[in-house]
Amino acid sequence: MTSGEGQSRGGPLAGLKVLEFAGVGPTPMGAMMLADMGAEVVMIDRIEPVELGSPKTPGFDMLRRNRLVVKMDLKKKEALDCALALADRADVLIEGYRPGVMERLGLGPDVCQARNPRLVYTRMTGWGQKGPLADRAGHDLNYIALTGALHAIGRESGPPAPPLSLVGDFGGGALYMAVGVLAALQSRQSTGKGQVVDVAMVDGALSLMTAFYGGFASGRMSLERGTNVVDGGAPYYDVYQCADGTYVSIAPIETRFRRELYERLGLPTDELQGKDGPAQRHEIKPRLAEIFRQRTRAEWCEVFAGRPSPTPRPPRRSGTYTNTVLPRWGIDPGTIARLRAASALD
To answer: At 248, phi and psi to the nearest 5?
Structure first.
């Protein structure tokens, strides 16, 4: 494929063409993952801006990186015809509208796969395409609440804590979508036919909880928040405030790493080893908290050799590559001119 600057770049998905209908949260995240692995992802964006909770400045809309964005008015027949022509040339189609929207537009999987049998048609919803909740609106917090994931997140004796939209949107949604697409592409190699990848964030969040359901059922984990190792119940798996009001996280679950932690903190390792679990949290946590309050976070980072993380390159303005993408995907100049004349293309 080629990048926005027209320079060749590789990756395991190089040569794969993905058509993405602009959405929010999990669909752009999943498409971004495919693009990061080398796929050429063309996003069809709306002509008129829609409030999706995304940054208005393109440089900060990181989920749109590595995209070639065109803008169309899908309410116009000319734009719909163009979208179908792009779907004819795509390996993967990604959409995150409510159930039935693509069908009403004439862009449903039956139509697109009849024209392009090799197309992997990918759908993202919160509750699934069918079922009692399919038509109900919702967001990440609603999905993880129903699965029980939200119940498990929070401090001891406190209410469930709304997390960032990682469990439902990005983990249960985007990640499972990417895996589903790759599985469908692998199947296509032997069958020659695409599939419909139906992703529901509530299903993905449920799947992510598999290990914890096993822990709860076996009694190895407690349903009471903040009393298990990985929910902050263990003194050595938590966040602590520093002298400057900022925080550090520690997570030396393994015995050898805990010994090193205690040595660097000046604590007696033999005294604490084996007596520092969730059952001793009310005794050990105050001791650790007092120590961490004695230095700033920067000073603790030096003690534990912390390093900063790099940041990715931001995307270009929506619609920048319209004139580049459409001809490359086989849309002839006459059709492009008619689309512009009909205000169906930006």
So the answer is: -125, 150
CB contact set of 63 (below 8 Å; sequence gap of 6+) = 28, 29, 32, 54
Distance CA 302, CA 297 (A): 9
With H, G, I as helix, E, B as strand and everything else as coil, classify residue 334.
helix
CA-wise closest residue to 33 among 3, 64, 70, 2 = 64
Q: Which long-range contacts (CB under 8 A, 24 or more apart) does 4-13 make?
A: 4/66, 4/67, 4/68, 4/316, 4/320, 4/321, 6/324, 9/38, 10/38, 11/36, 11/37, 11/38, 11/39, 12/37, 12/38, 13/37, 13/38, 13/39
Q: How many CB atoms lie within 10 A of CB 311?
A: 7
**Positions marked active-site:** 139, 169
CA-to-CA distance for 183 and 211, rounded, in angstroms? 23
pTM for the structure as a whole? 0.82
Distance of alpha carbon 287 from alpha carbon 265, whole angstroms? 10
What is the spatial distance between Cα 185 and Cα 245, in angstroms, rounded to a whole number? 49
Contact (Cβ atoms closer than 8 angstroms) between residue 107 and residue 19: no
* DSSP-based three-state secondary structure for 8: strand
Q: Cα–Cα–Cα angle for 334, 339, 343, nearest 5°?
A: 145
Axis-axis angle for helices 333-341, 77-89 (nearest 10) = 150
Tell me the pLDDT tens digit for each residue of 40-60: 999 999 887 666 555 566 667
Q: Rounded to 5 degrees, what are φ and ψ at 94?
A: -125, 125
C-alpha pair distances (Å), 168 with each of 152, 218, 233 = 14, 25, 24
- Residue showing tokens 């469930």: 160
CA–CA gap between residue 165 and residue 141 (Å, rounded): 7
Across the range 232-255, mean pLDDT stands at 95
